[in-house]
Design a protein that fits this description.
By secondary structure, the protein is α/β, with parallel strands linked by helices. The protein is 45% helix and 12% strand. The strands form two sheets. The chain has a four-stranded parallel β-sheet with strand order 3-4-2-5, with helices on both faces. The chain has a two-stranded parallel ribbon with strand order 1-6. It binds adenosine monophosphate. The site of adenosine monophosphate has 12 residues, from helix 3.
Length: 195
């Protein structure tokens, strides 16, 4: 089981190896290929430290068309710090792909956020509040979004983001793929509360 045998884009593979990864972790071995090939919703339980960030990041980067300057993947995370951390990992993994990835979080200037989004980004990683604000302002358009990933979904639900997540979800095209990453919560129940 190797990154080489996952049918990944050559540029993405270069990013993975130059980031220092040699072999996929167990969760990466189980999730990356089905995420890319089935395009179906995926539920994964993964503590931090297992390689979960790279798992969905690789699954997203492989599916992004950098010739289309529209948001093709949106990732929500419960905290600004986590969102920024995910962006760092994605930028590093996508280093050879000319893909634009933007952290859309509170605590930054709204006007800068709007300008960056209007200039065209391929992937947005953010916290629910700022992301929903950007959608309402028509700065973030989701017509071409094909992946809506929720990292630490249990944490987001327990922080009371459920309504905001659902509001964002309602703006998605109907066939969007939803990868859900949980640290703990019971899977079925959590999935039900989002879809
Ligand atoms: P995470 O579970 O996403 O917080 O990742 C935990 C740590 O494992 C991070 O420092 C990653 O850079 C690292 N990591 C993730 N996947 C791999 C891999 N396939 N090989 C080596 N290190 C990895």
């Amino acid at each position: 089981n190797e990154f080489d045998s996952m049918n990944l884009d050559e540029q993405l593979l270069m990013g993975i190896y130059s980031y220092g990864f040699e072999k996929p972790s167990p969760i990466q071995q189980r999730i990356i290929v089905p995420m890319i090939e089935t395009k179906k919703d995926i539920i994964a339980q993964a503590q931090s430290g297992t390689g979960k960030t790279a798992t969905f990041s690789i699954g997203i980067l492989q599916q992004v068309d950098n010739g289309l300057a529209e948001c093709q993947a949106l990732v929500l995370a419960p905290t600004r710090e986590l969102a920024q951390q995910i962006v760092k990992v994605m930028i590093a993994l996508g280093d050879f792909m000319s893909v634009r990835i933007h952290a859309c979080v509170g605590g930054t200037a709204v006007r800068d956020d709007i300008r960056t989004l209007q200039n065209g980004v391929h992937v947005v990683v953010g916290t629910p509040g700022r992301v929903y604000d950007m959608i309402n302002r028509r700065a973030l358009r989701l017509a071409d979004t094909k992946i809506f990933a929720l990292d630490e979904a249990d944490e987001m639900l327990s922080r009371g983001f459920k309504d905001q997540i659902y509001d964002v979800f309602k703006c998605m095209p109907p066939n969007v793929q939803v990868p859900l990453l949980f640290a703990n919560l019971h899977h079925g129940k959590a999935k039900q509360s989002i879809r």
